[in-house]
Inverse folding.
């Protein structure tokens, strides 16, 4: 199934706003807790849709189509690249592709639906340039480097992988000033409430 024009989010008419949609983009270093905060906020804020990235990596136990990713074959992904179906995409060291689905974004913004996704800092810069009136960039920062190092060590046992991710942190942190909002994730409950407050500022229920 090639998703060049098909939407990957099931938008409900009741959530349509009488304005253009907002595109909330959450970024931050690996291990900072982006997905945990996103889950916290989306459980508490109605009417904002999570936009999954499209990937060619295999589905893992506990995952489903559309959460946390939309899974496709490499052949389909490459056909979608040729058809211009991605706002941005990348191929990582494993050979798997990841991309952000442009038709779903355009439909949401043009039809008054608010969407949210997590994206790396370079991808977010592209999005801000493409949709300057619609994008609300939110950066999640660690309280300090040692805390981030411990979080990464807790979820990844390969020291080489941890080292590579830490190498990226300085680059990623250098982009924080380009974001409209910065949340320091020193405490899940406090940082989660801050993210909920930001979302409700733009998308009141």
């Amino acid at each position: 199934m090639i998703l060049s024009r098909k939407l990957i989010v099931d938008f409900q008419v009741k959530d349509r706003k009488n304005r253009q949609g907002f595109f909330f983009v959450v970024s931050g270093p690996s291990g900072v807790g982006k997905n945990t905060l996103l889950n916290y906020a989306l459980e508490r804020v109605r009417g904002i849709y999570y936009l999954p990235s499209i990937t060619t990596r295999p589905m893992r136990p506990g995952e489903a189509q559309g959460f946390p990713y939309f899974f496709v074959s490499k052949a389909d992904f490459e056909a979608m690249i040729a058809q211009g179906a991605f706002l941005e995409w990348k191929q990582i060291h494993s050979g798997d592709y990841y991309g952000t689905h442009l038709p779903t974004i355009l439909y949401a913004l043009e039809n008054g639906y608010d969407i949210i996704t997590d994206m790396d800092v370079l991808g977010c810069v592209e999005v801000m340039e493409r949709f300057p009136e619609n994008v609300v960039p939110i950066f999640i920062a660690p309280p300090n480097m040692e805390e981030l190092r411990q979080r990464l060590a807790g979820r990844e046992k390969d020291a080489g992988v941890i080292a590579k991710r830490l190498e990226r942190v300085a680059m990623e942190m250098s982009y924080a000033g380009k974001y409209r909002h910065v949340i320091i994730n020193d405490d899940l409950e406090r940082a989660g409430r801050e993210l909920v407050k930001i979302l409700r500022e733009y998308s009141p229920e």
Summary: The longest helix spans residues 159-173. The chain has seven helices and nine strands.
